[in-house]
Amino acid sequence: MPLSREAPIGGCNSSLPRRYFHCYMQKRFSIGNKLYLSVVSLFLIFAVSFVVFQQYREKQYKVDTLNLRLQAFNNELHDAMQISGKGIDEAFINSFLLSHNDRLGNRGTTNDLRVTIILRNGKVVFDNVHKNYESMANHSSRPEVKEALARGNGSIVDRNSRTLNHDYFYSATYFSKEGYIIRSALPYNVDLARNLQTDQHYIWFSLAVMIILILVLYRFTHRLGSNITMLNDFAARADRSEKLDAEELIGFYNDELGDTAARIVKLYLKLQRTQQEQNVLKRQLTQNVAHELKTPVASIQGYLETIQENPRIDDKTRDLFLQRCYAQSKRLAALLNDMSMLNRMDDGADVITYEDVDVAELIRAIAKESQFNLEQKEMTMNYTVPQQIMLHGNRSLLYSIFRNLTDNAIAYAGKGTHIELTAHWEAPYWCFVFSDNGIGVAPEHLPRLFERFYRVDKGRSRKMGGTGLGLAIVKNAVRVHGGSISVKNNPTGGLRFDFTLKP
User: Fold this and answer.
1) Residue 432, SS3?
2) Residue 496 in contact with residue 427, Cβ under 8 Å?
3) At the topology level of CATH, where does 348-501 sit?
4) By the 8 A CB rule, do 117 and 129 touch?
5) For domain 1-253, which architecture applies?
6) In Å, how far are 36, 217, 427 from 48, measured between CA atoms?
7) How deeply is 439 buried, as exposed, middle or buried, from its count of CB atoms within 10 A (0-12, 13-18, 19+)?
8) Which pLDDT score, from 0 to 100, does residue 406 have?
9) Which of 148, 240, 366, 456 has the fewest CB atoms found within 10 Å of its own CB?
10) Number of H helices, E strands in the chain
11) How far apart are CA 252 and CA 266, in angstroms?
12) Buried b vs exposed e over 446-462: b needs ≥16 C-beta within 10 Å?
């Protein structure tokens, strides 16, 4: 379904008639229409200019061809006169014309071809059509004669004969040695005009091609303009913060611009949804943080108020209260530290320093550090990893992955549980499996284990001293190092974490 065009743009809600007229013209002359008119105008200017130019060239070609034929006839006549040795002899010239009346393709008599011989001074000494040529006016001012005297030959397509009052096609040739001009002429009648006309089939063909191209241009510009208009409408609606639906907006034509526009729309909607989700998460996080901070702060405040209000309290009770305040402050510090670590990962790679880290060494160190806690709960831990696992990453974040998984298992897997950690190379990742054979969790809790402040048993989790951010830190630290993590229940009991890290 295409974009809705009901929403006015640029102040079309105004009650002023001028605004309504502006909006009407804006819709009438959309981007597509403007683009189409611009392209078609340029195309028509070019096409008409090309057709006119071609028509001119074709007509000029026919004129030049006819002129060359007349010039050839003039030369033939001159050669025949020289060979005969008779010079300008009326009887000889008429005889020559009679024998060559079909040389130029004229279908009439010799009277169709007019031959005039003119001296250098413009005096006419022969004309086969106007027999009383001695009375003819001086021809030195005739255009074709002037041109012949200047260039050797001259012609004019359609000139009225002052002598005969008839239009002729003139072609004159100057023979400087003999001092005269031979001018041949054909009557510029309907047949000659038709012969000099351009081929009308070419015009009709050009017109048909132009119509086809205009239709093609309309289809192209309409699609292009529609995509631009829809994208513009989308941008206007997005700018007004209107509610946008993917089904309503994805109606672009299937071409490169349409695909690009659709991707822009989808990306915007995705970003919009992401922003909304982030806003929800931020609100939830703020609420969770306030709730998590409230408990230790309230506990510390209560113990201190008791001590302050009872100055005669015995030393044993005071020490107990101070120990509890200290424990709550440690929990508060851990919470703030975890939150700081998550914020640092949310900010991205720009605030995280990287170095070459031996992960195998980190695992061995964490196993030693956790030995006391493991023994207290009668738990065992075994790790099967290569002697060296080199990663280019952040030491603190890599440490937090394995430390939080270990602490989580110690805290919640149950007494007497065995922890297993394995690692192997599967290009291009190091693949890790962290599992235990403890009590596991209910299946409905598995998808939410990596959420911030999510607890399966809230009361028990707080009693264990957890912040509710450990697994969230694990997931984000894995993501920062180019990997992914998943969790599931082992068939035999306990949890299994599968995750990858990129070197």
Assistant:
1) strand
2) no
3) Heat Shock Protein 90 (3.30.565)
4) no
5) 2-Layer Sandwich (3.30)
6) 18, 16, 66
7) middle
8) 94
9) 240
10) 14, 12
11) 12
12) beebbbbbbbeeeeebb
Give the pair of three-digit tokens for residue 416. Answer: 């007497």
pTM tops 0.85, yes or no:
no
Contact 130, 111 (CB under 8 A): no
* Second-level CATH architecture of 256-330: Orthogonal Bundle (1.10)
Could you tell me the residue ranges of all domains in the chain? 1-253, 256-330, 348-501
Alpha-carbon distances, residue 90 vs 8, 71, 128, 175, 208 (angstroms): 90, 20, 8, 18, 55
Q: Residue 25's closest CA among 41, 39, 9?
A: 9
Over the stretch 416-460, which tens digit does the pLDDT of each residue have?
999 999 999 999 999 999 999 998 899 999 999 988 777 776 544
- Are 247 and 1 within 8 A, CB to CB? yes
The strand pair at 495-501 and 429-436 is best described as antiparallel
CA 56 to chain centre: 43
Distances (CA, A) of 340 to 333, 336, 345: 10, 6, 9
How long, in residues, is the chain?
Answer: 503
Residue 189 φ then ψ, to 5°: -105, -170
